[in-house]
Amino acid sequence: MRLIDEVSDAASVAISGHIRPDGDCVGSVMGLYLYLKKELPKAEIDIYLDKPADIFDCISHIEDIKSEFNTNKIYDVFFVLDCEDDRLGNAHPLFESARKRINIDHHISNKGCGDVRIVEPDRSSTAELLYDLMRPEMIDIEVATALYIGIIHDTGVLRYSNTSPRTLQIASELIKFGFNFSDIIQKTFYEKTYVQTQIMGRAVLESVRFMHNRCIVSMVSRRMMDFYQVTPQDLDGIVNQLLAVKGVECAIFMYETGTLEYKVSMRSDGKVDVAAVAMRFGGGGHVRAAGCTMNGTYHDNINNLAIGIAEQLDLA
Ligand code: 5GP
Ligand code: MN
Questions:
Q1: Which is the most buried residue in 17, 87, 229, 273, by most CB within 10 A?
Q2: If you take atom 23 of ligand 1, which residue's CA is the nearest one?
Q3: Whose CA is nearest to atom 7 of ligand 1?
C-alpha cells in the first residue's frame, strides 16, 4: 500500500497522535506532515498534538502543531498515528467527523480504528512503518530527520530487540540525507537537564525491589514534582534506568497525576509481557514497554500490578 493512493484527492488532511507524545509519536506526526506537504501542495494540512517537549524543536515546522482544537472542522482525511482513537485526547471529535480515517500504528495492543487500518506490531516504530508507505523520491532531509528521531526514540537508539534488519536499513537510508544524527541522538535522547537528572536520581534512590529482586518499583509524587519544578515530560527515561539494574526483569515507575491517580510505565527484559499487564487496567503498549493509568493508593496499585507480573513469572 502507498500512502499517496489513500489521500491523493484530499483537500484537507489532519494528523494526530497520542496524548503526552513521545519521540516516535512526534517524529511520525511531523514526518508525515512534512511529507504530505510535498505530496499535496494544494491541500490544507493541520497537525493536532499536545505540545511536544522542547528537545524536538530541531524538527522543521514543529511550530505548526496546533494544541488548541477547533473541533467543528470536518477533514477529508484524518490520520491517527502511533495509537488508536482512544488516546487522541481533545482531537477525538475531529477523528469522529472526518470523511476518511486512517490508523497507522505498531502497538500490539491496538485493535485498529477507522476506515484504513495499518497496524504492524513487528515494526520498531510508527516512523519505520511510515517510511515504507512513502514514495522514496518524495522524502527530503526534513522528513528524514523527523522519521529518524521517531525510530531512535522507540528503539533506544537502535538497541532494543524491536530493532530489525529493516529498521537498520531504513536508518541507513535516512542518514544518507546528511543531517547531524550524532547531535540529534545526543540532544534528543541522552542529554538531560539538571532537574531531570536530579529527579531521576531521587527516583532511583527511593526504588524498592520485590519478588526476589526480580522486580523494581519507584514513584514520584506531585510534591516531589513541585519541589524539583518538573513536568511529566521530565520523567522520561527513569523507568529504563530502573530496568538497567542487574537482575531486574521488570521495572515499574509511576507518577502522581491527581488524587489517588497515577500514570504507570512498565519495562521488561522480555520474560514478562507488560502490555498484557497494562491492558488489565485499560492501558497497552508493547511486550517490553507499556503503560496505563491507575486509580488507588500507590501500594494498592503495586499490589494489583504485581498479581499480573507474578503469574507470568510463575510466582503466583
Ligand atoms: P511509556 O511508558 O514510555 O509512557 O509508554 C510505553 C509504551 O506504552 C508506549 O508505546 C506507549 O505508547 C504505551 N502506553 C503508555 N501508556 C499507555 C496507555 O495508557 N494506554 C495505551 N494503550 N498505551 C500506553
Ligand atoms: Mn511508537
A1: 17
A2: 284
A3: 290
Cβ proximity of 250 and 215 under 8 Å: yes
The CATH superfamily holding the domain 3-190 is: inorganic pyrophosphatase (n-terminal core) (3.90.1640.10)
CB 69 within 8 A of CB 90: yes
Cα 82 to ligand 1 centroid, rounded to whole Å: 10
Report pLDDT for 70.
Answer: 76
Tens digits of residue pLDDT in 163-193: 999 999 999 999 999 999 999 999 999 999 9
d(CA 22, CA 278): 18
Average pLDDT over residues 6-14: 97
DSSP H/E element including 165: helix 165-175
CATH (residue range 194-312): 3.10.310.30
Q: Of ligand 1's atoms, which has the minimum distance to the CA of residue 82?
A: 12
> For a substitution probing ligand 1, which of 242, 265, 266 has the most ligand atoms within 8 Å of its CB?
265
Range(s) within the chain of domains with CATH label 3.10.310.30:
194-312
